[in-house]
Amino acid sequence: MTASTLGGDVSLRVAIVGSGPAGIYTAEALRKQATVPLRVDVLERLPTPYGLVRYGVAPDHTSIKSIAGYLRGVLELPDVRFLGGVEFGRDIGVTDLLDCYDAVVYCTGAMVDRRMGIPGEDLPGSVAATDFVNWYCGHPDMPGDRFVLDSPEVAVIGVGNVAVDVVRILAKTADELRATDVPQEVLDRLAASEVKAIHMIGRRGPEHAKFTLKELRELGELTNADVRVRPEESAADVSTASRQIRGNVEVLQSWAARGLTGRPRRLDVRFWMRPVEILGEGRVEALKLERTRLLDGRVVGTGEFETLPVGMVLRSVGYQSVPLPGVPFSEATMTVPNEAGRVRDREYVAGWLKRGPSGVIGTNKSDAAETVRTLLADLADRDPVHRTDPDELLASRGISPITYEHWLAIEAAEAALARSLDRGERVKLLGIAAIRPGRARPCQRGP
């Protein structure tokens, strides 16, 4: 599709900001539900599409990552374009998009970690788990030398699936990850890891943990690490609980009953403990914990403390969206206020930015479909209103978007690198924002 074909037609044009699952499912729903000619541009700050599928799913979870094949098919639909390297709020804003398109759908997700709010949280060595995930997933914002795993003990705060992923990557050997798409520099640093003990810590009891049974069981199958659970911390009455919770507690209690076997690493799964302070002079040296209990449904401290000699603390206590420039935002819910996806006239939202960080990847499909129904109903009796050609606007600002063809070049380069290293199907590239014919440019960090 060229600028000239966009300029004079009477098709509806819709811009989607964000190319993760929510954004691409929105593009798919638009193509399926529309009864009039409709063209979709998917704008993305990064040079690559797929969002969390590429940069959030653990590299050893290849079955989940295979959903990228489905998302790829959407980007290859007629009249759907991928425009990478275009940052909303810097390169293009709300007014620009409403001049270029009949409607805009915001799908930027919720990828900022919540903070714990304790003393010492800003010490070097105290980091968001998503930074660590971005590192081993090869995110363009994260340099390959971001982490040096030189501490014998590490704490991971949180008992959800992201925490489990982080723990599993820390516990595995580099050889176990060799066939994955982990960037080579990251793999080298994982191979040199000095980590011997990993503490995964939850404020509540095992019956309140957020991980799924499948993810939890994977920890018990680690060949390089023993798993230790304290019997008193795994005790729970789950007689009326869901099957998922009963399964989690049964697995944890089975681990509490078995001994250590002398594997190179050890994973301690802790419950009823909350971080109260990160200690250290100039960097993390220890983590102070307090024993907890429930009082009227609230977690309260008991005054019983314990200190772990950790050199790194990774927090994974939830995620939240960030405000987009010029777009309404609720600080109370950390989402964009909406009615069935409608934000304001011709502005819409889908995904975690719409409903908060809940559900699985597939949940975004029905969520996107709802937003698209609202959008198409709103535009049903309107004539196209776009006045400015988006290609011309970007060109006037010196911005040359990364096209889908450029993305295919990145994929091909990663496959070639994997072959040269004798490593799986692909090895992610680091240190560039885009591959174009004869051109690469440095990565720009977003807000």
Task: Describe, in plain words, how this protein is organized in 3D.
With 447 residues, the protein is α/β, with parallel strands linked by helices. It has 17 helices and 19 strands. The strands form five sheets. A six-stranded mixed sheet has the order 3-2-1-4-17-16, sandwiched between helices. A six-stranded parallel sheet has the order 6-14-7-8-10-9. Strands 11-12-13 form a three-stranded antiparallel sheet, with no helix packed on it. The longest helix is centred in the C-terminal third of the chain and has 18 residues, at 404-421.
**CA-based gyration radius:** 23 Å
* Helix content range: 25-40%
Biggest sheet descriptor: 6 strands, mixed
- Average pLDDT level: 91
| SS elements, strand count | 19
Low-pLDDT sequence parts: 1-8, 433-447
What characteristic shape results from the CA principal axes? globular
Strand order of the largest sheet: 3-2-1-4-17-16
Q: Output the structural class.
A: alpha/beta
Strand residue percentage: 15-25%
Ends distance: 30 Å
Q: How many helices? A: 17
